[in-house]
Amino acid sequence: AEKSNSARRRFLDEGDRIILRSFVGADAKGAYVSGAQLATELGVSRPAIWGRFKRLEGEGFAFEGVPNRGYRLVRWPRQLHTALLEEELRALGETQVHVFYLPEVDSTNSEAERQLTYGRCSPLAVFSSAQTAGRGRMGRSWASAADENVYLSFGLRPNLPSESLRGLTLWAGIFLARGLSPYVESKKIELKWPNDLRIDGKKFGGILTEAKSDTDGMRTLIIGLGLNVNGATENFPDEIRNKATTLGAHADRPLLINRIAARAAHCLHQAYQHTLAQPPEGKGGLASAWRAWDCLAGQSINIRRFDTQVRGVAVGVDDGGALLVDCGSDGIQAFQAGEVTTQGIT
Fold it and tell me: Count of H helices and E strands in the chain?
């Protein structure tokens, strides 16, 4: 009886993850999974497995059952799903990330900060399908429609001096560009300093890094990401419709949103780990790594900081992440922050 109860508890707690684990990953595409094998692994009956498949179908999955072959996953959900996010992350080697999914939230950055304040283990990843108070750089709001997009915040407790993570936002952009490029092979992902991801001159993603520090160093760190995945661009607000796009608009097929979301979280974690590993005297090749994705280099730009505006030609970034601008007779100046505009890029 004790063994039976243990199996039942495991099935209730882990059944979805164990079932979905069999279907996650390229090697499982189109493969049949034995219901009998799953029943044996979980220590429950085959009807119990069948019942769990039916429940998953109510959450957006579709399975095809074939006698003597098993079940085949024929449709993935179009919305984020906690167990699937966990298994997609696991397939990427992210076994220590704690996943929180909320269909709607004020801001994933705010929720990640709350979870860290509550004492939740880090690293943690907060995902949502819609934000009611999403925010971008410089206090701007972030349009966050519930239309197959990803709102994600990766939360950490570095307990390190702030200078240890200099350049992190730019590394996050680089790792995201590298990680997402295979999904849009016919287009080039570009980065606009300091935090925008773009395709064909239009923005499809933005990064917002926020930290809380005290005299001993950085206590909490949140790397936030808004990513337009499969949403219809005609549903964008009028003011951004000609400036924004989606990743899926440039792919040859609709993207699996849970796979993209997990990949994005993995990229943010990679960027954090990479930044920590760099030598303190310089961020080890940030300038050259950024150059491969830079959409501002060689452009005449305006950069505004507070009430000051400077004009010049963007010439890349330095290894600390500062934007380098050739200001003519005033030489090359480095800007740690500011709002950049140029004709065709806003």
Answer: 8, 15
